[in-house]
């Protein structure tokens, strides 16, 4: 191999994964990895090939027969409805529509090159520019904006509501009807905080502590970026397990090794695929402190909101209405993310507002803290904070009943009206 890899203390007798995976030690591959990491899509494909049982380089279908990218688009549809306080009925209509129009494929182009994105929206019909309608969050918002203007949409058949929004001059109700059962299942699964993370990853926890999972993910990502075949990594796992488990059937050791690599790679694959919804490779693979903070926050997507929960060590039980939920509130998530980047910013919005330089909005960079207040002229009324991904989106823990998620904030009236400023930790 071009680099040295090893796994230490991997599986206990009970089969639980208990330590880190794939420690990359070779420097000769550094330039190759650096080049690969700047292409987020290529890096995602490489990691996802590790998570495939066949290792063929194609993305493994996950829950509901959908790929991680399709599930990511479905989650965006759910999240946009949640942020607007729309009922599940709206989510079901939107999901059925996107399933019919593109099967949740954001790269789809139809109608002789006139319709784009997962909803196949037409720029020449006032849906927005091609760039906008191929941004999943924007496309979902545009759909909902038209849906809520349909009189009586809440009570009318799903298929009729979808047809009115999408094709008012065509009767495609039978086509939308085909997707109603799956749309309902997706809406139910992705709307539940307790299960939101499972559909996004398709894998159960394999027994790693948060710190060990961090090491494992970084190492798998490096190995995939270097082009190391998955079987070479698995072979290293097998050798470690054979030493730790003398007398155990070699076939069982191989099975455990495959499971360990596939599971961790699958989790990382899902995260990268979700993050690829327009997030640049510089953010996904960057090494600046801001990029590291964003990456840490993105890895917490799906973790429940918990009032007073979370801190430098990760999610925790909160206080008050968060006392029975292990997760993050908004400032707990930002404190955790910046702790991963090596900065202490305090555990509440008041401390974080004073934890760095105040930056003009036009100069926002990944990792900057974006603050919102009841009175945008008075910092004492700050009530929310998120971590900037770029100038329009943030990753944040929104409210009780939600989960950590990526959402657009720029151009959203309720967010724009509350925006108070940006802080860049040192």
TrEMBL record:
Domain of life where this protein originates: Bacteria
Protein name, per record: Lipoprotein
Record family assignment: Belongs to the peptidase C40 family.
Keywords: Hydrolase, Lipoprotein, Protease, Thiol protease
Residue ranges occupied by any NlpC/P60 domain in the UniProt entry: 286-426
Gene Ontology terms for molecular function: cysteine-type peptidase activity
GO annotation, biological process: proteolysis
């Amino acid at each position: 191999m071009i680099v040295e890899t090893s796994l230490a203390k991997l599986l206990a007798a009970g089969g639980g994964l208990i330590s880190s995976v794939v420690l990359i030690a070779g420097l000769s591959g550094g330039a190759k990895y650096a080049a690969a990491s700047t292409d987020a899509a290529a890096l995602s494909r490489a990691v996802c090939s590790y998570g495939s049982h066949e290792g063929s380089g194609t993305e493994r279908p996950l829950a509901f027969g959908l790929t991680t990218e399709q599930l990511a688009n479905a989650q965006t549809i759910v999240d946009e409805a949640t942020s607007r306080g729309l009922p599940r009925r709206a989510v079901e209509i939107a999901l059925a529509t996107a399933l019919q129009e593109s099967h949740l494929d954001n790269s789809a182009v139809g109608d002789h090159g006139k319709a784009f994105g997962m909803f196949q929206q037409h720029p020449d019909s006032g849906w927005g520019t091609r760039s906008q309608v191929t941004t999943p969050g924007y496309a979902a918002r545009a759909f909902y904006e038209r849906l809520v203007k349909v009189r009586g949409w809440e009570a009318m058949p799903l298929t009729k509501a979808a047809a009115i929004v999408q094709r008012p001059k065509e009767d495609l109700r039978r086509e939308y009807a085909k997707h109603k059962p799956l749309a309902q299942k997706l809406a139910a699964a992705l709307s539940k905080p307790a299960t939101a993370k499972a559909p996004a990853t398709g894998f159960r926890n394999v027994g790693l502590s948060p710190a060990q999972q961090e090491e494992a993910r970084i190492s798998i990502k490096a190995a995939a970026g270097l082009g190391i075949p998955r079987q070479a990594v698995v072979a290293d796992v097998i050798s470690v397990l054979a030493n730790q488990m003398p007398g155990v059937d070699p076939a069982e050791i191989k099975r455990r090794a495959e499971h360990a690599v596939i599971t961790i790679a699958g989790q990382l694959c899902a995260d990268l695929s979700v993050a690829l919804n327009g997030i640049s490779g510089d953010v996904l693979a960057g090494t600046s402190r801001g990029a590291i903070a964003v990456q840490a926050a993105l890895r917490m997507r799906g973790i429940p909101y918990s009032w007073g929960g979370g801190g430098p060590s990760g999610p925790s039980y909160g206080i008050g209405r968060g006392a029975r939920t292990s997760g993050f509130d908004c400032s707990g998530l930002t404190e955790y993310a910046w702790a991963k980047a090596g900065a202490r910013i305090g555990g509440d919005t008041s401390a974080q507002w004073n934890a760095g330089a105040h930056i003009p909005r036009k100069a926002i960079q990944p990792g900057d803290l974006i603050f919102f207040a009841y009175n945008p002229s008075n910092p004492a009324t700050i009530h929310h904070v998120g971590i900037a991904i770029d100038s329009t989106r943030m990753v944040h823990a929104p409210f009780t009943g939600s989960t950590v998620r990526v959402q657009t904030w720029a151009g959203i009236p309720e967010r724009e009206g509350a925006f108070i400023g940006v802080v860049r930790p040192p």
